[in-house]
Q: What sequence folds into this?
């Protein structure tokens, strides 16, 4: 390093100049509003004035059945949304990455590029395209099921309370499977040849090589993917909004925290928007995400051994 | 690597699984684009066949171009994305340089402060961001979106770029200092050109979420003048629920520019992800 700490040196203005724009924008547009939102959740608009009411908004959120029923419903749905991602998206991503990283696989660049395509599309496109495909009007989904003789299984999934959330979760999985695939693929590529060769000398090949050698080595990446999935899922909004609207129908069965926040903040149809309740919900989302990140940082990451090559 | 471990059935199995998944990933996209070129009868009669001379029809596209102000929305999206990208890259690279090049009190703390935004989504501050924009009269302007997206993109950009800037040779920078170059010249003339490949990676990562975002355009800039293409498509799709030609054409128009850019830059993007910067 060029700059060694020496006593009595002139103040280095250029450091400030380099840092200032980023710090300014980041602090003004991101950190202060975040803090402001947390603060707003402790206030209430009474006769055009913001009055400090302590935890009153949270008491309403958890105590008033008009709010608490919706909140717990959204939280439950959001948890299910997350569980499906963990159970479907991440294992599929790991499997695809493991297949892609096998040596001398032809067309692997093509597969990689193609499987990542849905990830770059906007939620509006994804939500609507799937809505059309699953629509009984168009008949693409029943037609395809008919080809494999399962036509009787078809129902309008997005329109049924018991299936809609699962169907949307799977659509989201379809869209984002590229991310775990790429990150795991990168981790698998960084395992040095010697480790694999040593395993082969010991006669560990194929599936058992994956389970016994590679999987333990990519656990830190799986940890990162899990926390990314967690943050992304508990912050999700767009897909539900485009596919089911702000009311997250049918009958709120696909309501997650993001759509609940939107309705509380902006109001919808007969419900009037309430920024303070919106801030209270955003605060709960903040605490949930912060909790998840802390669990990851302090419990998961410290226990995962990192291998340095 | 020995080839003995690669047996033929295993390779065929791998290709079969990957091909199946590729089909699942591409099927909806191809289906939408294919049917957007068909007449209404063609769309419903045989959704799974490519357009034939009998079913080929551009009625959907003419409706979209005629009805929606898509070119205008497109311009808005382009302005917002390019401007945010410019500021994220410039400010991000400057901050990353300061953090990776100089030792000063609070360096680590500053890095952690900036990294906070990688994990905590900016969306949670929406309530106060809207108040801020209302207070400063920026609601329904593209400036509001550019500011928000710049703040949103900065944390990851600083994080990735400082990893790369650490790899730039110290000897080179010191040679520049001995030749009497100012710190600013060293940054703009020596360091920036050397980290250009990683800037491209950050650009792709920053660009996709900005282009596709629905939340902030919906909340901060929903006016006709400032609609982005994502919001425009969303509203258009809601309006034309029964006009399948128009819907499929609008979806295709929204897919194609992103798809073309992706095909051009996919090598860059994938190299960026697999280069270890974001492991």
A:
């Amino acid at each position: 390093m060029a700059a060694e700490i020496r006593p009595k040196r002139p103040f280095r203005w250029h450091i400030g100049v380099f840092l200032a724009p980023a710090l300014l924008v980041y602090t003004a547009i991101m950190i202060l509003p975040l803090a402001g939102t947390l603060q707003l959740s402790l206030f209430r608009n009474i006769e055009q004035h913001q009055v400090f009411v302590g935890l009153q908004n949270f008491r309403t959120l958890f105590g008033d059945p008009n709010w608490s029923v919706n909140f717990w419903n959204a939280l439950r749905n959001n948890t299910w949304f997350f569980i499906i991602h963990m159970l479907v998206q991440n294992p599929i991503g790991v499997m695809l990455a493991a297949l892609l990283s096998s040596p001398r696989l032809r067309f692997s660049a093509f597969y990689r590029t193609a499987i990542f395509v849905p990830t770059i599309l906007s939620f509006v496109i994804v939500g609507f395209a799937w809505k059309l495909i699953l629509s009984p009007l168009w008949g693409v989904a029943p037609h395809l099921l008919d080809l494999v003789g399962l036509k009787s299984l078809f129902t309008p999934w997005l329109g049924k309370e018991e299936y809609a959330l699962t169907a949307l979760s799977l659509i989201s999985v379809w869209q984002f499977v590229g991310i775990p695939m790429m990150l795991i693929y990168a981790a698998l590529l960084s395992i040095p040849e010697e480790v694999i060769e040593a395993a082969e000398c010991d006669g560990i090949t194929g599936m058992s090589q994956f389970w016994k050698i590679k999987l333990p080595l990519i656990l830190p990446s799986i940890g990162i993917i899990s926390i990314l999935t967690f943050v992304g899922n508990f912050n999700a909004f767009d897909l539900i909004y485009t596919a089911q609207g702000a009311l997250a129908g049918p009958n709120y069965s696909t309501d997650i925290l993001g759509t609940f926040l939107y309705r509380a903040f902006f109001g919808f149809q007969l419900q009037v928007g309430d920024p303070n309740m919106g801030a209270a919900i955003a605060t709960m989302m903040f605490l949930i995400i912060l909790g998840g990140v802390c669990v990851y940082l302090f419990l998961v990451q410290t226990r995962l051994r990192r291998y340095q090559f | 690597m020995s080839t003995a471990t690669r047996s033929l059935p295993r390779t065929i199995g791998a290709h079969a699984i990957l091909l199946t998944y590729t089909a699942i990933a591409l099927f909806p996209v191809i289906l939408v684009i294919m049917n957007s070129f068909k007449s209404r009868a063609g769309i419903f009669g045989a959704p799974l066949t490519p357009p034939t001379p009998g079913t080929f029809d551009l009625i959907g596209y003419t409706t979209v171009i005629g009805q929606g102000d898509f070119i205008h929305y497109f311009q808005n999206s382009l302005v917002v994305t390019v401007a945010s990208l410019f500021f994220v890259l410039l400010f991000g690279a400057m901050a990353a340089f300061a953090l990776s090049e100089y030792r000063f009190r609070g360096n680590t703390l500053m890095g952690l402060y900036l990294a906070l935004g990688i994990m905590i989504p900016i969306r949670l501050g929406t309530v106060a961001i809207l108040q801020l924009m209302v207070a400063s009269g920026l609601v329904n302007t593209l400036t509001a979106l550019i500011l928000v997206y710049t703040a949103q993109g900065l944390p990851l950009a600083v994080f990735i770029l400082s990893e790369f800037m650490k790899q730039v040779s110290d000897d080179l920078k010191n040679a520049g200092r001995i030749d009497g170059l100012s710190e600013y010249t060293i940054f703009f003339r020596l360091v920036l050109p050397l980290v250009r490949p990683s800037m491209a990676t950050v650009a792709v990562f920053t660009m996709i979420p900005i282009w596709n975002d629905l939340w902030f355009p919906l909340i901060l800039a929903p006016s006709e003048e400032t609609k982005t293409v994502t919001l425009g498509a969303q509203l258009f799709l809601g309006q034309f629920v029964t006009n399948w030609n128009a819907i499929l054409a609008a979806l295709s128009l929204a897919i194609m520019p992103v798809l073309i850019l992706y095909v051009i830059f996919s090598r860059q993007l994938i190299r960026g992800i697999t280069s270890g910067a974001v492991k």
